[in-house]
Amino acid sequence: MTADILQVVTVALLLVVVALLLAVLRSGRDPLPVALGLTDSSAAEPQLDSILSREAHFGATRYWPDDTRVRLIGYRTVRIEPEARPEFNDFFWAHFDVFRALPQHHYDPETGDLRVYFPVRGAVVSTGDQRLEASEHGGLSLTSEGDLNSLQVFGRRQTTRVTGGPSTIEDGVILLRAPVPVEHLAGDDLPVFDFGERQIGGHHDHGHHDHGQVSGGKVSCHPNHGGMNCSTAFGIDQGRCPFNPDVCMDYNGLWTDCKNYDQGWKRYRNFIGSDCAIALSMGHCWNEI
């Protein structure tokens, strides 16, 4: 009797398996991964994280080792022009998992906007009648409770490695042309600031053309670091390409071919993970062109 029951159960299970395999075959999917339970990652469409979720995640990372309650988050946007976007988008989707693992980057394939986030190191801010200075980690200690939406960044403290341009300095503060207000809050204590577009590529700042650009309260790479590029100033060298101290090393990124393009989608590919991108994401270069 027991053997008969086992036989019936075995036949029933085989019929269920056959039915499942037939359903999979009709759907056009490979039956082996389905049978092995390997379909979750391979079948799912890549999902873009929301901007707010990326910002909130960044606000909780190790970049703020001090215990200040308010953490200032800034971002610069590398804007990929429409004619370069199709090829860059193909590249983005082909390397989606790597992009998603970069905690301070957010790319929107619809708009072509690549955001790089950073702690707003040494920011000088105002709120009401208060003037406050953020820490070297972008943390802010408020002397009184207030609406964080009223914060404005109007400059950053000058240091030996972030010098600014001569025409932008006042009492040791590198002044922006106009105060940058809070764009939105990514959390209760996470004000986010938009510091505008970041130029990259061969046109950005090279050789003699770099040693004096000042625009809108922002300076280019070399004059902002006392005549050095950010690689030299902050000891960043990814080692993927021959080092050139006379240019901004914004082309020795993760997928670089070591060419410094003036145009085209490859200049954006070469930027990601470059010395310049790392320095920017660490909060060293947010007042630059």
Q: What would your notes on this structure say?
A:
With 289 residues, this protein is an alpha+beta fold. It has two domains: 2-43; 48-289, no CATH class. Helices cover 29% and strands 22% of the residues. It has helices spanning 2-27, 31-36, 39-43, 51-59, 85-94, 96-101, 221-224, 230-234, 266-271, 275-281, and strands at 70-71, 73-79, 105-108, 113-119, 123-127, 130-133, 139-140, 152-157, 169-170, 173-185, 191-197, 214-215, 218-219. Strands 2, 3, 4, 5, 6, 8, 9, 10 and 11 form a nine-stranded mixed sheet that branches. Strands 1-7 form a two-stranded antiparallel ribbon. A two-stranded antiparallel sheet has the order 12-13. The longest helix is centred in the first third of the chain and has 26 residues, at 2-27. Residues 27-43 and 203-217 have low confidence and may be disordered.
SS elements, strand count: 13
Strand count, sense and barrel status of the largest sheet are: 9 strands, mixed
- The quaternary structure here is single chain
Mean pLDDT: 78
Order of helices and strands: HHHHEEHHEEEEEEEEEEEHHHH
The count of helical stretches stands at: 10
Poorly predicted tracts of residues = 27-43, 203-217
DSSP strand content: 15-25%
Distance between the termini: 84 Å
Derived from helix and strand composition plus strand pairing, the structural class reads alpha+beta
The radius of gyration over CA amounts to 25 Å
Please tell me the total number of domains: 2
Shape, per Cα inertia axes: globular
Task: Give the fraction of residues assigned to helices.
Answer: 25-40%
